[in-house]
What does this fold into?
Amino acid sequence: MKKNYLLAPGPTPVPESALLAMAKPMIHHRTPQFSQIFKETCEMLRDVFQTKEDVLILASSGTGAMEGSITNLFSAGDEVLAINGGKFGERWGQISEAYGLKVHWIKVEWGDAVEADDVKKMLDENPNIKGVLTQASETSTTVQHPIKELATITKDRDCLLIVDGITAVGVADIPMDEWGIDVLLSGSQKAFMLPPGLAFVALSQKAWKQSETSTLPKYYFNFAKEKKNIAKDTSAYTPAVSLIIGLREVLLLFKETGLKEMFAKMDRLGRATRAAMEALGLKLLAPKAPSFAVTGVYVPEGVDGAALVKYMRDTIGVTIAGGQDHLKGKIIRIAHLGYVDTFDTITVVAAVEMALKKFGADVQLGRGVAAAEEILSEQYA
Ligand SMILES: *Cc1c(COP(=O)(O)O)cnc(C)c1O
It folds into this structure.
């Protein structure tokens, strides 16, 4: 009998209250009972997105909200700018191209954040660009992009800032309305600590205005239609009833904890993880602008990162993530978002130490754990 720990950047562990609520017998969605749950859930979601706008709940993985943001805001031939600093930035551009948009790319080295000045220059030179597509946290390269600065650039232009916040909303302080983000989206299986299957998206007034002129084909992901239904405490199509019931439980936990406290915790877990990896002599993938949700480190020369991840999962029982594309086998990624805390972080650091030693790396057991504990102790100070 092995106990398994899930510390990959999604899916993340699901808290007990959500699991139990989701296990209850099915209820019908067109009932006062479900409408009440839906209404409360939508209200609490607004608080987490830090917006007074509606947050639409879609039955899809996070990519559905990305695709819907393109089809609901643009028309064929429109120009957009995609910040391509990893797999998910690349996805923004690919979706846009699939719908016939003209995509300008800013290619960012994996492990670096985009320079706000480069975005400004691109927009100055191409005044027809109607949307900047970016991640707040590029999960594949463990980087955070400078969203607040980007918002100051798009704010006074005829251009929307569209932010994939799938590993950022509920992890770090990204106040949508205050900063002037036009589209902010997320998904259920990362910071929202639920099974995969829900996507969330909120639009600013500026974005809703632009959506009125969009002519790309849309049917299932029709944001205006969802907004109309939210006003009646329901959704256009059959909602993912059980997931929304679980979401309500998660949002109650968020509320009980408070956003400030949550952000402080994630920040502490992130700092502890980075300190631990550096104490082990490993090199961070994104030292300058590390993601709030996940830490990437290079494995030592001679160690096969993919085999290390597999060993940790199958033998030790701790699931983390490896690298993608050219970083395959070269890095590991350790999550610190969702339903994880101090002792999950200590567990994963200890597991990395033991696995590295097993793979012949020159590590001193306990050194990473000690560095992590120094920071994690702040919680009890
Ligand atoms: C996980 C993730 C996605 C993709 O979400 P799916 O739920 O797999 O569709 C998109 N963007 C970021 C930043 C992610 O971390």
